[in-house]
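Quick one from the shared queue. A colleague (R.T.) flagged YheC/D like ATP-grasp as missing a structural entry in our internal table.

Convert sequence to C-alpha cells.
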Amino acid sequence: MKATLARVGLLVASIDVETTPESHASDKGCSIKLPEPVFARMLSEAAGRLNLDLFVFSPAGYEPRTGQLSGYRLRSGGWTEELCPLPDIIYDRCFYRNTEERNACNAVLTAIRERKSVLTLNGSLPGKWEVYNTLRQDFILAPLLPHTTRLDRPDALLQQLKSHNKELFLKPSAGMQGKGALHLQQSLLTRQWIAAGRTRDNRPFRQRFDHYSGLAEWIGRFIGRASYIAQPYLQLTDPEGNPFDLRVLVQKTGKGRWGITGAVIRTGRSGSVTSNLHGGGTATKASEYLTRLFGAAKAEQIIHRIQQASLHAAERLENNYGRLAELGIDFGIEPDGRIWLLEVNAKPGRSSFQQSDDRSAEQMSVERPLRYARLLSQRFNNPLITNDSATGRIQSFFQGRRICSDNVQEVHP
C-alpha cells in the first residue's frame, strides 16, 4: 500500500487572482500572483522530490462553516486551484500589508486548529525590543548587541541623542526590509539636524531642520503610534562608504538540528542608511567580500565567530519562544572587524542567495524546511510522541509533569 503523503500547507497573506488567462493560468481560466513566486515554485518542486504534498493557500481560501480549503498546487508548470485537505503542517509565510491581513491570517490558523491537530513549521518572534532583551541575558551574545533603548517617552529621543554624540539610528520594533529606518545626526558645520532614511513604502529620503524642535515635531509625525527602538549609529560601511551587513540563514535540518545554510553580504547604495535588498542593495558571497576587506585569515575568523553566534542565538530564542524552523540573523562589521548582532528575522527571504549566485545555498534553503516538516510529520503520527512538543520525547516521560507546548529545543541523542 502506498504511504500517505504528509501534507504541507504554505500559508500566505493573500493571493491575487487575475481573470485573464496567461502563462501559469489554472484550469479555471485565471492566473495568480503569489507574494514569493520563485520561492513557492521551488518549494513545490522540492516537495515532489521529497514525497510531500504541498499546496499554497490564503485565508480567503478557507470556509470556516464547512471546513473546506481551496488552495493551489503546481501542475505541469502552472498553478491549479483545487479543493485541498486540511494540512498536517502549516508553513507560515504571511507578510502582512495591514492589520486586516494580520487578523485574517491569525483567524484562519485558529479555525483550522479547531478542526484538526496541525503543527506550525515555523514559530514567530516578538518585536525587536523583546528579542533584544532576551538575547542580552545571554553572556555569550550580550557583548555583540548594540546598546538599545525604547522610545517610549517624548523626552527619550533628546536624551539618547545627547548620550550618543548627537547621532542615532532608529527603527520600528516590528519593521522589516529597512522600512521606516532613520539615521539622525547634527551637522558639525551647519549645526542643522539631518534625518535620513526610508519611508514605510521603502523610498529613500533626507530632511534638514534648523532647530531640534522642528526635528522632534517631524519625528513625532513620522513615527506616529508605532513602537520604535534607538541604537547608536555604527560605522558599518566599506572603504567606499557603502553600508553593508552580513545575513546568516540558520535552519533546522532533516534531523531537527540547527545548521548554517549560507551567509551573504548585502551592500546598500552609497548614502543609503540600509543595505536591505528591497531598498536597492546587492548581494555577494560573504567569504569573497570579507576576504577583499580583511584578508583570507581574518575573514575566516570573522565568519566562524558569526556562525557560532548565530547557532547560539537560534537555540536561545527557541528555548524562549518555542519551535522555530529558520532564522535570518543580521550582523554588522566595523572597519576594525568588530562584530555586532543587529537583528533577527523569523521569516527570512532567499533572494540574496540568488543574487549572490550561491545556487547550493539557495537550493538548501528551500529543501531544509521541507525535510524538517517531514521529520515533524513522522513524529506527529507516532502515537508515542507528544503532538504539541518540539522535543519528540516519548509521552510517558512527562507523565505527571506539565509540558509547555512548543517551548523547548529539539532533544537529540
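The chain is about 30% helix and 25% strand.
The chain has three domains: 6-120, 147-232, 244-398.
Added to the table.
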